[in-house]
Backbone:
């Protein structure tokens, strides 16, 4: 075992997970934090791999097996399944209702004790072992129609660690140098730190910034197979990835018919994957609402108004070629966006651009995936979620001076990015001037790429300028 992995085990204790075990056991169909939780729970006994596989085969159903699961529920009357449970409140009946994706129901009865004990099910949803009971005696309305699905959620066992206090991260940080800490985070994502250069590792970790900072909007364009989707899918349970397809105001903001809030209202981060393939219902309305939300964090639909700290990420694939030992994009980034989003006001509201073309493609799993310990994904996800509660923009602004050509949006963008970077790289809030200069220059590069993009898009409105910052002290 390497010195780094030994230190991770020593410092994090029960919150250290052998990421290589996840690679060896190969559970690709469920989120990484669920896989890690199950491996940690099962790996203490004899013949644990066989027992774990049997557990998954018995309890996990894909969406395509919906009818098979329904048949089993009717025949047996009661089943236990692994799935995400999302609870909402029916004000008319005063009851809690559940959305269960694998069963294809959105109006199951959930016993009050579950909602009381696991309130995160009513915010973002939680993965766990769900006990379902078939109920033939569903009450009906005045027209004789059933008022809910004939399913009752009678028990729920979540797949997550009991402690979500970010102080564990804060206390651990002092045991590692900055380079070591970056390697800890890379392994936590399930990647092998030895396969990447320092700048490449930092660029990968920039993907986590929207998960620790509210209303931080980023874009990333890069070649295929660099781990863009992989990172978001495996780092947080509070992320919703929308991979192309049609997007409606109801699914994103608020469904007026059902009264259900959309993804932006309930998630920490919404990722628009393969953005070029995204299609909007009512494009003018959607883009206008997106711009308003990206500016103020507010949204409204009909008579419904809301505020959300959800961050937005726009990801797309771009063609690249190698020039002078580096890859650069060879197509205009604007044309990766769908037509309705080719709007300078929307692009300006993106705080920073992650240069995904600087990240090498992920090769063989045995080489590019982690070969040792990192932080448990379920704890790390919760810790990042907790970090969002307070911005450090005011704190970092005490140490940074902006050049005169900064706009208000430039200042806001740099402060937000720096706030997120401090939380991620210095959770104990202990840094020196050299380290602050390092992350400040990275933040500046991210915003400069947005300014350069805007100049190419609308040179008359956005002059070609270099932004500059100075660190005090």
Residues:
């Amino acid at each position: 075992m390497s010195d780094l992995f030994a230190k991770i085990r020593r410092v994090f204790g029960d919150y250290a997970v052998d990421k290589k075990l996840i690679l060896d056991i190969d559970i690709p169909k469920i989120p990484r934090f669920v896989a890690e939780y199950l491996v940690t729970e099962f790996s203490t006994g004899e013949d644990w791999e066989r027992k774990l596989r049997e557990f998954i085969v018995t309890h996990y159903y894909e969406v395509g097996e919906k009818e098979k699961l329904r048949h089993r529920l009717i025949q047996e009357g009661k089943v236990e399944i692994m799935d995400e449970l999302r609870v909402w409140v029916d004000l008319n009946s005063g009851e809690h209702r559940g959305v269960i994706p694998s069963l294809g129901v959105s109006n199951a009865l959930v016993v009050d004790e579950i909602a009381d004990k696991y309130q995160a099910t009513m915010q973002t949803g939680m993965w766990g072992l769900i006990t379902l009971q078939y109920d033939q005696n569903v009450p009906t309305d005045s027209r004789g129609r059933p008022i809910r699905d004939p399913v009752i959620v009678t028990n729920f066992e979540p797949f997550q660690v009991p402690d979500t206090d970010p102080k564990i991260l804060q206390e651990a940080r002092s045991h590692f140098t900055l380079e070591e800490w970056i390697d800890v985070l890379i392994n936590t994502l399930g990647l092998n730190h030895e396969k990447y250069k320092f700048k490449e590792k930092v660029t990968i970790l920039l993907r986590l910034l929207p998960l620790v900072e509210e209303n931080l909007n980023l874009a990333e364009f890069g070649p295929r197979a660099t781990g863009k989707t992989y990172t978001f899918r495996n780092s947080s349970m509070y992320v919703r990835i929308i991979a192309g397809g049609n997007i409606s105001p109801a699914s994103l903001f608020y469904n007026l018919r059902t009264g259900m809030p959309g993804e932006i209202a309930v998630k920490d981060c919404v990722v628009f994957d393969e953005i070029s393939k995204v299609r909007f219902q009512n494009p003018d309305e959607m883009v206008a609402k997106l711009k308003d939300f990206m500016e103020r964090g507010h949204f409204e639909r009909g008579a419904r108004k809301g505020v959300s700290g959800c961050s937005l990420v726009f990801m797309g694939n771009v063609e690249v070629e190698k020039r002078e030992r580096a890859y650069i994009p060879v197509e205009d980034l604007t044309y990766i966006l769908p037509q309705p989003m080719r709007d300078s006001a929307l692009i300006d509201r993106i705080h920073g651009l992650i240069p995904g073309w600087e990240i090498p493609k992920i090769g063989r799993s045995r080489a590019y995936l982690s070969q040792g310990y990192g932080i448990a994904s379920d704890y790390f996800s919760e810790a990042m979620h907790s970090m969002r509660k307070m911005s450090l923009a005011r704190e970092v602004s005490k140490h940074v001076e902006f050049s005169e050509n900064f706009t208000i949006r430039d200042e806001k963008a740099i402060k937000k990015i720096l706030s997120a970077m401090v939380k991620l790289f210095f959770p104990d809030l202990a840094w020196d001037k050299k380290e602050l200069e390092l992350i400040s220059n990275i933040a500046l590069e991210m915003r400069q790429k947005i300014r350069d993009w805007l100049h190419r898009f609308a040179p008359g409105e956005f002059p070609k300028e270099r932004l500059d910052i100075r660190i005090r002290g």
The longest strand covers residues 78-90.
